[in-house]
Amino acid sequence: MNGEKSEQYYQRAVRFMPGGVNSPVRACKNVGRTPLFIERAEGDRIYDVDGNAYIDYVCSWGPNILGHGKQEIIQAVKNTCDKGLTFGACHAGEIELAEIIQRNIPSMEMLRLVNSGTEAVMSAVRVARGYTGRNKIVKFEGCYHGHSDGLLVKGGSGLLTGSIPDSAGIPEGYTENTLLARYNDEKSVEDLFRKYGNDIATLIIEPCSANMGVVPPKKGFLKFVRKITEQYGTVLIFDEVITGFRLSSGGAQQYYSLIPDMTVLGKIVGGGMPLAVYGGKREIMQYVAPLGNVYQAGTLSGNPVAVSAGIATLKYLEKHPDIYSDIDRKAEKIASAFRKAGMNVNREGSLLTVFFTDKSVTDYDSARLSDTKKFADFYAYMIDNGIYIAPSQFEAMFVSCAHTEEDVDYTCDVISRYFAGDSVPSTPAHF
Ligand SMILES: *Cc1c(COP(=O)(O)O)cnc(C)c1O
User: Fold this and answer.
1) What is the extent of the structural domain holding 333?
2) Are residues 245 and 286 in the same domain?
3) What is the pTM of this model?
4) What is the mean pLDDT of residues 410-428?
5) pLDDT tens digit string along 208-257?
6) CATH code at 368?
7) How many CB atoms lie within 10 A of CB 368?
8) Do 335 and 269 fall into the same domain?
9) Is the separation of the CB atoms in 326 and 401 below 8 Å?
10) Domain final residue, candidates 319, 339, 374
11) pLDDT tens-digit profile of 14-52?
């Protein structure tokens, strides 16, 4: 496998972009490699500038549930582009997208379109604070909610005290209202509510966590979270940026039959374009300007091109509801290949992570027991055998409906060979 051109691009890129990347998750430092530069993608394949083909399980970190280059989406985008890229004004597409979202996720009685998951979460939290008149928020260690100041906290000591920011450049004052709980640990939540309950504006959670690797909620955990937030008048926000339109057409809230007060969507909802959404109960959303006094705005919000990609994607999913059982089944095939090799794997729907630890992974601390050096070795083998996965132990593999049976079987075969100690890379005939 030749990586000459990618290496050359990388040397140019580092002169301009920190680490050569526009998002740190793309850097391959942790796995001792340099990033591949991608030229194009189609179906379940992604192609780098050196002409290597890979079966793609990153799927742009979630959006590509229909695979790459789906004609229905591409044509919709092209048609919209012909009419203009942006107007900064109202257009019919916004309503159509809102209607489709609400049809699938009825708890989003009112919603706002924005440009990224980060922006959507940041706005939803602001609305929850405006609505409740409270300042504190509860988040879970290992859950990612974008990079806004108050949410970049996951570590730090003292669950019951204020928390320390995860990044430089964030004054402690910005995170002193962020309280940390442990995923799947009811007591950690209860302790915070007992102490601060009447000051907690919102509890935000990934209903199935996928940013410390995939960590599904334990049975009853979300129900508990729903109950305690109700009891204290705290707004429950489901961050469904990954799980929305992924775990089911109605997201995690349908999948687990639990209805939050507010929901944040991103990734799939934009069909591969920069688009995200926040929304929820009318009673809460009417606090948003110009109806209410919580300010939130955006020059490119509801961008017609992004909206048309979202509409085309969601319409396709509505027309093909069988997609969900199909991607779940393929993900299970891959998960069972890991299990047969004696590995520890978490799977929920079409999301899965193999953890290089023997202990079952149920939260941030247990995820961190993973041997990242072993993961790096596994990563290299996968890449060298034409399988593109995220360069980190703490990410999900995403299965799309474009993954062919043949490619899934090949993937399982590579996994089996790796754990059987076969170190010889091979390129399958159909590549
Ligand atoms: C990706 C992600 C975000 C942030 O979305 P961006 O579009 O990258 O800003 C927020 N929450 C979750 C759960 C995510 O996976």
Assistant:
1) 323-389+416-425
2) yes
3) 0.96
4) 85
5) 999 999 999 999 999 999 999 999 999 999 999 999 999 999 999 999 99
6) 3.90.1150.10
7) 17
8) no
9) yes
10) 319
11) 999 999 999 999 999 889 999 999 999 999 999 999 999
With a 6 Å cutoff on the Cβ, whether 45 touches ligand 1 is no
Cα(409) to centroid(ligand 1), Å: 30
Residue 129 CA to ligand 1 centre (angstroms): 20
Contacts within 8 Å (CB) and 24+ apart, 337-343: 337/411, 337/412, 337/415, 337/416, 338/415, 340/416, 341/415, 341/416, 341/418, 341/419, 341/420, 342/419, 343/419
Same domain, 183 and 291: yes
Q: How far apart are CA 265 and CA 112, in angstroms?
A: 10
Of 119, 121, 204, the one to substitute when testing ligand 1's pocket (max ligand atoms within 8 A of C-beta) is 121
Of 275, 292, 319, the one marking the end of a domain is 319
Residues composing the chain: 431
Could you tell me if the CB of 266 is within 6 A of ligand 1?
A: yes
Answer yes or no: is pLDDT of 156 > 70. no
Structural domains in the chain (count):
2
Give the active site residue among 239, 261, 328, 363.
239
- Separation of CA 345 and ligand 1 centre (Å): 23
- Which entry of 70, 136, 267, 330 is annotated as an active-site residue? 267
Which whole-number Å values give the CA distances from 180 to 135, 151, 175, 201, 203, in the listed order? 14, 10, 10, 14, 10
Residue 321 scores a pLDDT above 60: yes
At residue 30, the pLDDT reads 87
Tokens 């023997």 map to which residue? 358
Q: How far apart are CA 424 and CA 406, in angstroms?
A: 21
CATH number, domain with residue 101: 3.40.640.10
Q: Which of 230, 217, 273, 264 is nearest to 244 (CA)?
A: 264
Give CA–CA dist 398/327, Å, rounded.
9
Q: Do residues 269 and 371 both lie within one domain?
A: no
Task: Give catalytic status of residue 388 as yes or no.
Answer: no
The residue annotated as part of the active site, out of 9, 57, 131, 144, is: 144
Among this protein's residues, is 239 annotated catalytic? yes
